[in-house]
C-alpha cells in the first residue's frame, strides 16, 4: 500500500459534457467524442514516448488541434489527441490499483494498465419533443473486482432543474437489490459491493428526480441507465481436458496434426483477458530429439515437427503444455498431453536364410516343399507384422504355391501340380516377403531363393487309351487274337520292362501274353452270357514294371460282341390246360436269346401225331403261337410237339404238355382224381418195371456218351442238360416211325411214389440248352427205339407227373 504514492493519479481525460447540454440532434455540441476511453498497455511498454492511443475531440468548428491536459504527470496528450507515456516509470510487481475519489487509473494484476475516464455525470434530458432516451443516455461502465472502499461513487445524477429547485433523487433497479444506492439529495450514485462480470455483466437502473418541495412531484421523466461491468482479467485459462490423450502413428509425416488442445477462459471474450496462446513447455522423453512436436499458439493444434518417432524405442511421449491469456502474457495454466506412438509398418520382414534347398517327390500334388521363417520388428500379430509371400520368379507354369503359415512368420511352399522328374529335375524359385499392409515408409523387400530338386519315382505304366474298345464276333474261335493292348512306362530314365496280366475277366474268356500284351480268346465267348452287358464284355488288364516295388497301371478292355445266331427259339409256356369241347385257343410266347437279327419273326409247325388233333399258327407279331385243340379228346394229359424256327431258320422242337379237361370253352375245370384209364396196383407194378427199365437205359446212354465223347472232337459239356433233345431225332426229315415217338403221353418219368430221382422227367419246363454242333443221331435213335418199345407196351399205363 505504501507504493501507491508514486502512482500519482490524475485526471487524464477531461470529462466531456457535450451530450448533456441538449437533446437536439442536429445541433452540434463541442466535446470529447467519447466520454470514456479505455487503453490497455503492457507494463513492459510503459516507457517514455510510448503511444497508447488517441482521444477524439470535436469543437463543432472542424478544428483538429487542441490543447489537452493530463492530471497525471506520467501521461501526456499531444495536440492531436495522441495519448503517450511521458515519464519512464516501472511498476512494482505487487503494486495495487489505487482509486482516488472519482478519478481512476487502474492497474490490474501486475501486467496492464487500464486507463479510463473520470466520474460520469448523467443528466436528465428534456423529452418534450422526442423520446429517444434509450439511446441518448450512454451506459455507465464499472470495472469489476474494484477494491473499494465501498460504497463507491460511480456516477453523478443531475437534473438541470436543480438550479432553481431542490431535487430529490431515487433509483429503482432490477435484479440488483441493494447493489446500487443514490444520495437522494446530491444525486450521487454508489455501488455497494465489488461487481463480478462473470456473474452478471450488465444491470438496468431507473433514476427518478422529484421536486423536494412537493410530495411526489415528478420533476423529470424516468431515466433508464445501463450499467456495464467491465472485465478484469480475473480468470485463468482452464484446459478442457487434463491430460489430453492421443495416438500418433510412428510413420506420421512432418506437420501431421496429432491433436488440438483447448483451454477456456471465463473472462470477457471481447478482450485480451480471454485471448489464449498455447505453448509446449516440455517433452518427455527428449529423444530422439527435443522438439518432436510443435504447437500452433493460437489454435492449440499439436503437430509432428520432426521425423524420428519410433514406436519400437519410444512408445510414449508426455508433453507439458501451457495456456496463457492476454495473448500469452496473462494468467497461465499448465496441462499434459499424453501421446502414444502407434505402430506403422516401418520394418520390413526378413528371411532367416537367403537360400533354401528342398526336394520333393515327383507327381505329388500338395506336397510341402519348404518352410521359410521370417522376422519382423513391427507390433506382434498386427497387419504390419504378419508376413505375406509371393513367388516372383522360377515358376512359369504355376506348379508351386506359397502361403503364410499359421504363425504368420513363415512361408510354406507346396506343389500345385505333380512335378515330372523326366521333364524338369530342379527349379529355382525367387520368393519375396511383405506384410499384409503396405510399408509405411520406403523399405527394401526381402527375397529368398529356393532350389527345389525333384525326386524320381517309379511311375506306373500307362495304357493308351485307358479304355480300349474292340468289336469281335461272339463265336470267335478259341486261341484267336483279339487285340494287342499295351502300356508305356513314363519312367524313361529307368528303362524298365513292362509285363501284362489279366486283372479282371469275369467269364474267364481271355488270356494275355505277359510280354507283348497280346490278348487272345481262351474260351468261347457268348454274347448272351450274364457277364455281357448291352453286348459288351469288360475286362481289366494290368501292366506292371520290373522295379523292386513294381508300379502297376490298369487299362480297360471292352469287347463289343457281335451277335451270331447261336440260340434256338423256345416256347415259354410248357403246361397248358384246355377244355375238350369248344376249347379256347392258347397263346404261347417264344423267346430267343439272340439279338433281334436272329430272332423274331418265328415260324411254327406241329410235329408227328400232334397234327391230327391241334393247329398252331403264329400271331401277327410273329412272336406268339396260337395253339388250338381241334378235336374233342378224352380227358387226360397230352404232349404236343411244336417246331419253332427263328428268322434264320434255326429251329427246335418244343413239347408242351396239355391237360385236356372235360369242360366247354374258356373256363377250364378238371375233375380231380379221375384219370383216363385209372391206375390200379398191377398197373403200378408194371409201370415201376418200365421206370426201372428206363433208368437202366439212361445208365447205358451215359456210358455210351462217355465212350463216344472220347472219340468226338467236341464233347458235350457234362453239366449241360440234354434232355430236351434226346426224345426225338427229327432233324433229318423225321419219318413216320420217328414221328410216332413224339407222343410222349405214355412216356413218363417216375412219380414221387416211385422215389423219383428226376433222371427222366416227363417234360422239360423250359429248353435252355444250346444245340449240339454235332448231331447226336445215334444217341437219339437208340433212345427212340427203346422208348417206342416201352410206349407200345400194352401193360404200361400212362403215368402222370
Ligand atoms: C423543455 O421543453 C419545454 C417544452 O417542451 C420547454 O418549455 C422547456 O423550457 C425545456 N426545458 C429545458 C431545460 O430546455
Ligand atoms: C474448446 O472448448 C470449448 C468448451 O468445451 C468449446 O466451446 C470450444 O468450441 C472448444 N474450442 C475448440 C477449438 O475446440
Ligand atoms: C527287358 O527285356 C529284354 C528282352 O525281353 C531283356 O533283354 C532285358 O534284360 C530286360 N530288361 C530288364 C531291365 O529286365
Ligand atoms: C388224337 O385224337 C385221337 C382221337 O380222335 C386219339 O386217338 C389220338 O391218340 C390223339 N393223338 C394225340 C397225339 O393226342
Automatic annotation (TrEMBL):
<keyword id="KW-0479">Metal-binding</keyword>
<feature type="domain" description="Cadherin">
    <location>
        <begin position="159"/>
        <end position="239"/>
    </location>
</feature>
<keyword id="KW-1003">Cell membrane</keyword>
<dbReference type="GO" id="GO:0016342">
    <property type="term" value="C:catenin complex"/>
</dbReference>
<dbReference type="InterPro" id="IPR020894">
    <property type="entry name" value="Cadherin_CS"/>
</dbReference>
<feature type="region of interest" description="Disordered">
    <location>
        <begin position="713"/>
        <end position="801"/>
    </location>
</feature>
<feature type="domain" description="Cadherin">
    <location>
        <begin position="464"/>
        <end position="571"/>
    </location>
</feature>
<keyword id="KW-1133">Transmembrane helix</keyword>
<dbReference type="GO" id="GO:0005509">
    <property type="term" value="F:calcium ion binding"/>
</dbReference>
<dbReference type="GO" id="GO:0007043">
    <property type="term" value="P:cell-cell junction assembly"/>
</dbReference>
<dbReference type="GO" id="GO:0042074">
    <property type="term" value="P:cell migration involved in gastrulation"/>
</dbReference>
<dbReference type="GO" id="GO:0005912">
    <property type="term" value="C:adherens junction"/>
</dbReference>
<feature type="domain" description="Cadherin">
    <location>
        <begin position="240"/>
        <end position="351"/>
    </location>
</feature>
<dbReference type="GO" id="GO:0000902">
    <property type="term" value="P:cell morphogenesis"/>
</dbReference>
<feature type="compositionally biased region" description="Basic and acidic residues">
    <location>
        <begin position="778"/>
        <end position="794"/>
    </location>
</feature>
<dbReference type="GO" id="GO:0001841">
    <property type="term" value="P:neural tube formation"/>
</dbReference>
<dbReference type="Pfam" id="PF00028">
    <property type="entry name" value="Cadherin"/>
</dbReference>
<dbReference type="GO" id="GO:0060027">
    <property type="term" value="P:convergent extension involved in gastrulation"/>
</dbReference>
<dbReference type="GO" id="GO:0044331">
    <property type="term" value="P:cell-cell adhesion mediated by cadherin"/>
</dbReference>
<dbReference type="GO" id="GO:0045296">
    <property type="term" value="F:cadherin binding"/>
</dbReference>
<dbReference type="GO" id="GO:0030010">
    <property type="term" value="P:establishment of cell polarity"/>
</dbReference>
<dbReference type="GO" id="GO:0007156">
    <property type="term" value="P:homophilic cell adhesion via plasma membrane adhesion molecules"/>
</dbReference>
<feature type="transmembrane region" description="Helical">
    <location>
        <begin position="684"/>
        <end position="705"/>
    </location>
</feature>
<feature type="compositionally biased region" description="Basic and acidic residues">
    <location>
        <begin position="735"/>
        <end position="755"/>
    </location>
</feature>
<keyword id="KW-0732">Signal</keyword>
<dbReference type="GO" id="GO:0001764">
    <property type="term" value="P:neuron migration"/>
</dbReference>
<keyword id="KW-0677">Repeat</keyword>
<dbReference type="InterPro" id="IPR039808">
    <property type="entry name" value="Cadherin"/>
</dbReference>
<dbReference type="GO" id="GO:0007398">
    <property type="term" value="P:ectoderm development"/>
</dbReference>
<protein>
    <recommendedName>
        <fullName>Cadherin domain-containing protein</fullName>
    </recommendedName>
</protein>
<dbReference type="InterPro" id="IPR014868">
    <property type="entry name" value="Cadherin_pro_dom"/>
</dbReference>
<keyword id="KW-0130">Cell adhesion</keyword>
<dbReference type="InterPro" id="IPR015919">
    <property type="entry name" value="Cadherin-like_sf"/>
</dbReference>
<dbReference type="Pfam" id="PF08758">
    <property type="entry name" value="Cadherin_pro"/>
</dbReference>
<keyword id="KW-0106">Calcium</keyword>
<keyword id="KW-0325">Glycoprotein</keyword>
<keyword id="KW-0812">Transmembrane</keyword>
<dbReference type="GO" id="GO:0005737">
    <property type="term" value="C:cytoplasm"/>
</dbReference>
<keyword id="KW-0472">Membrane</keyword>
<dbReference type="GO" id="GO:0034332">
    <property type="term" value="P:adherens junction organization"/>
</dbReference>
<dbReference type="InterPro" id="IPR002126">
    <property type="entry name" value="Cadherin-like_dom"/>
</dbReference>
<feature type="domain" description="Cadherin">
    <location>
        <begin position="352"/>
        <end position="463"/>
    </location>
</feature>
